[in-house]
Amino acid sequence: MPLPYDLCARVQNAFRARHHKIAVDHTIQNLGILSILLRTGFISNVTRGTIESSSPTHFLHVGEAQRRIWAELKYRDDRPVLTDMELISRPSRRIFMDVGELRRICSGRRAQTIKPLGMGEIAVVRTKSKEHEWLEAREALQLNLEGEESWLVPSS
Q1: Between the CA of residue 34 and those of 1, 10, 92, 134, what are the distances in Å?
Q2: For residue 25, what pLDDT is reported?
Q3: If you placed Cys at 42, which of 10, 13, 66, 82 could pair as Cys (CB 3.0 to 4.6 Å)?
């Protein structure tokens, strides 16, 4: 399993360098987190491709080591939409939240050491459900799923 802070660092560095697309390793974790960023409007497109191109047709004809997920980054008025991402649960300090704690951070109150979500902010949660492994905190709350609080994405 890839390290959780690798995707966080790659996305932030790409925005700071004003790249329009980035390629990350093809893993379930990366695909799940990038899908959440796409649904919440922080990036504009996600496709599967290879190291050389973001063409989905080439994706099927290469080996696992050559497969990548391409994300198209989003800018507004020549400024990045996503300016900062924070890793909450670290390998040395895991933070698991039950439904009540998720409800508290989503409704503007602190839970454990996690500050509440503000307007335009999202938190990414890894649940134990195989069907919904990676969810935004509000989605996990609607589905009544608890999990590990992994990421905090503040609004720009």
Answers
A1: 16, 12, 24, 10
A2: 93
A3: 82
